[in-house]
Amino acid sequence: MRVLSALDPTPGVKMRYLRHHADPRFAAGSVPVDQFQLGYFGLPDNVVLPPEMAEKAVVPGCDGKGDVSAFIAQLSDANFHICTRDPSPSLTRGILSSKPFTKGFNAAAVRANVLVNRQVHDAEYYLGSDYPFFIDSTDTCAISDGVRHASAEFGGAQWEKAQTRMASVARQVAPSEVMAELDKILRLF
């Protein structure tokens, strides 16, 4: 059984894991298939991209407030999403604070591959430790090398392996699956 170590419950507390879902407004299978297209979809201040890559990437910028329809429409303009995140050492009630892999879930919903660092606590849980586009840190060099590696692998065996993993993630976080999981959890209590 795979375990999300950051979510170890407080002793004596009944807890079940419910996957976060991808945004149901995203259209599956709509990413470009003829050429590599990099994208970052999150707060603009959080992206770490060298200038030469930022110029070629889809980076719409969105703070989550107001009308997000243009942002949602652009999510499928890129077939490779940057999902790196610096590790959070802070604890809440003795448990490592965590954020779900939502950028990865949303990328999976549109059938895009992702670049993600191993420190994102649940990425390996969903993608497997041998996912081809993991990087070991969030420094600019690691991200640049990871993007170059993915671009060189576009359409090849490693790209297809990543696509298979992302399709599995998309199935796991589909709204119908999350609802079925929630129903099972509620029946336990």
Secondary-structure blueprint:
Elements: E1 38-39, H1 51-54, H2 69-75, E2 80-82, E3 91-92, E4 95-96, H3 102-109, E5 113-117, H4 123-127, E6 134-135, H5 140-153, H6 157-172, H7 175-188
Parallel strand pairs: 1-2, 2-5, 5-6
Antiparallel strand pairs: 3-4
Helix pairs in contact: 3-6
User: Which class in CATH terms?
Assistant: Alpha Beta
So how many helices? 7
Q: C-alpha Rg, in Å?
A: 17 Å
Task: Give a count of the beta strands, DSSP E runs of length 2 or more.
Answer: 6
The CATH level-2 architecture is identified as 3-Layer(aba) Sandwich
Q: Report strand %.
A: 5-15%
CATH superfamily: Glycogen Phosphorylase B
The shape is: globular
Q: Can you give the helix content as a percent range?
A: 25-40%
Low-confidence stretches: none
Mean pLDDT: 83
Strand order of the largest sheet: 1-2-5-6
The major β-sheet equals: 4 strands, parallel
Distance between the termini: 22 Å
Task: Give an account of the 3D structure.
There is one protein chain. The chain is of the alpha/beta class and 189 residues long. The chain has one domain (19-85, 95-172): 3-Layer(aba) Sandwich (Rossmann fold), CATH 3.40.50. Helix content is 36%, strand content 8%. It is built from seven helices and six strands; from the N terminus they run βααβββαβαβααα. It has helices at residues 51-54, 69-75, 102-109, 123-127, 140-153, 157-172, 175-188, and strands at 38-39, 80-82, 91-92, 95-96, 113-117, 134-135. Strands 1-2-5-6 form a four-stranded parallel β-sheet, sandwiched between helices. A two-stranded antiparallel sheet has the order 3-4. Strand 3 and strand 4 (95-96) form a beta hairpin. Helix 3 packs across helix 6. The radius of gyration is 17 Å and the shape is globular. The chain starts with 37 loop residues before the first strand and ends with a helix. The mean pLDDT is 83.
